[in-house]
């Protein structure tokens, strides 16, 4: 299986991701993006230093310069791309994947993503087929680690006024530890806040329930107003309410909407095709026009720019902001949500009370099915529900979202993992279970 995905380059280190591939990416990337420099950052995975060295050698062997950030969160690389007016950047990371994975996230000028349809396929072809001729004049490596301080200074105004909040924070042994204490201070309840590419406490994927057990317990034990958990490269974030309950990430999109509406800012907002009707309806009621689009940062960043969206959110915990160059940042998102929690606390309310106000439907969350014939299962679901029933709407740009008056579901293939993914929502738990039963029976024929 190729390491070149729809959103980035990612796979198991030593198999899909190697130093040779890193070198070749470094060599051909400046030609792909027509630039004489590349911003480079890396996370703390055990394989990241050697992949970094290989990538840097490839860039300099092509005769181009490296602007080296050193250790960085992925959003810090996006910030650096814009701040330095750079034409290309690479973050070495596998984001939320287990420790044996690694990869490369590539951006062009303006921190626009380089995805499968915007350059990655060309880069893959170049790395596989084209000849490497080392430049007689090699490029240089320049230290740009000072950009971290600039990024912290950019974020600092959003962290003001949060001193009185009782917050529990899980850094997942990953990159959020690089800057979060500079923003929120030492007097918080931090766990897993030491860099460790072995991710000893849990995998750096907060969307999996088992990885949130620690922060849920910590939030309850500390009597915190809110719990926060970042993924491995800090481009995603998820939240725990004051009762220790995990908050479904698409509901947080509505919470972020309340932050902006509270400041008198409305306009366009972006959500992915899996997003709850609860979020859509809430955002519309507080003044936003909501656009639904494909899953994944390479798609979301282009669409939110197109609609000039104030913000956007995904079920996976990515949140995008016009105030952050239309990019995603877990830490930026968390500062806005904590500001909402602060306002609620001043009003004598809790985060769970706002979530209760937002949620109106029974929701399945994302359910994954591992099967070979994903296309066959999607076709069967479409025939059963779109052709035999009478849907009120059909969205067909990322799998299908088939809507009815009292329920809807989305079926789509994962772009990064071997799964068929289902999200369903209904007006009642009984109706949801009834429809999920039919969906499971149809998918079961394809195992």
Question: Could you characterize the architecture of this molecule?
Answer:
The protein has 14 helices and 23 strands. The strands form four sheets. Strands 1, 2, 3, 4, 5, 6 and 7 form a seven-stranded mixed sheet that branches. Strands 18, 19, 20, 21, 22 and 23 form a six-stranded antiparallel sheet that branches. With 447 residues, the protein is of the alpha/beta class. A hairpin with a 5-residue loop joins strand 15 and strand 16. The longest helix is centred in the last third of the chain and has 17 residues.
List keywords for this structure.
447 residues, 36% helix, 7-stranded mixed sheet, 6-stranded antiparallel sheet
Short description:
This protein is an alpha/beta fold.
Shape: globular
Q: Biggest sheet, open or closed, and with what strands and sense?
A: 7 strands, mixed
| Terminal-residue CA separation | 21 Å
Structural class: alpha/beta
Low-pLDDT windows of residues: none
What's the pLDDT, averaged over the residues?
96
User: Strand percentage, roughly?
Assistant: 15-25%
| Helix content bin | 25-40%
Number of helices: 14
Rg, rounded, reads: 22 Å
């Amino acid at each position: 299986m190729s390491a070149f995905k729809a959103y980035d380059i990612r796979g198991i280190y030593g198999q899909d991701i190697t130093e040779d591939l890193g070198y070749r990416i470094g060599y051909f990337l400046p030609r792909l993006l027509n630039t004489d420099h590349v911003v480079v950052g890396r996370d703390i995975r055990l394989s990241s230093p050697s992949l970094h060295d290989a990538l840097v050698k490839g860039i300099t062997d092509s005769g181009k310069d490296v602007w080296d950030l050193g250790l960085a969160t992925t959003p810090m690389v996006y910030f650096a791309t814009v701040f330095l007016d750079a034409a290309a950047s690479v973050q070495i990371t596998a984001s939320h994947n287990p420790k044996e994975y690694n990869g490369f996230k590539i951006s062009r000028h303006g921190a626009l993503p380089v995805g499968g349809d915007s350059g990655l396929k060309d880069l893959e072809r170049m790395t596989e087929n084209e000849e490497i001729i080392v430049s007689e004049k090699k490029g240089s490596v320049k230290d740009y680690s000072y950009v971290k301080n600039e990024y912290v200074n950019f974020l600092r105004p959003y962290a003001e006024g949060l001193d009185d909040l009782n917050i529990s924070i899980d850094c997942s042994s990953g990159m959020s530890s690089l800057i979060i204490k500079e923003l929120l201070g030492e007097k918080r309840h931090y766990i897993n806040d030491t860099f460790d590419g072995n991710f000893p406490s849990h995998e750096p994927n907060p969307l999996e329930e088992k990885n949130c057990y620690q922060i849920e317990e910590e939030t309850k034990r500390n009597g915190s107003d809110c719990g926060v958990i970042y993924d491995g490269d800090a481009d995603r974030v998820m939240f725990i309410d004051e009762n220790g309950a995990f908050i479904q990430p698409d509901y947080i999109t509505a919470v972020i909407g309340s932050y902006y509406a509270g400041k008198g800012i409305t306009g366009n907002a972006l959500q992915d095709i899996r997003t709850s009707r609860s979020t859509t309806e809430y955002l519309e009621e507080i003044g936003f026009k909501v656009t639904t689009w494909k899953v994944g940062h390479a798609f979301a960043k282009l669409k939110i720019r197109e609609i000039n969206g104030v913000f956007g959110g995904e079920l996976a915990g990515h949140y995008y902001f016009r105030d952050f160059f239309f990019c995603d940042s877990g830490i930026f998102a968390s500062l806005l949500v904590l500001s909402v929690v602060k306002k609620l606390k001043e009003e004598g309310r809790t985060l769970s009370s706002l979530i209760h106000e937002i949620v109106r439907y029974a929701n399945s969350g994302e359910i994954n099915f591992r099967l070979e014939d994903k296309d066959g299962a999607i076709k069967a679901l479409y025939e059963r529900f779109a052709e035999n029933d009478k849907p009120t709407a059909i969205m067909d740009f990322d799998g299908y979202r088939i809507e009815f008056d009292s329920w809807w579901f989305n079926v789509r293939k994962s772009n990064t993992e071997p799964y068929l993914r289902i999200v369903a929502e209904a007006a009642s738990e009984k109706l949801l279970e009834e429809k999920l039963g039919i969906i499971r029976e149809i998918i079961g024929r394809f195992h």
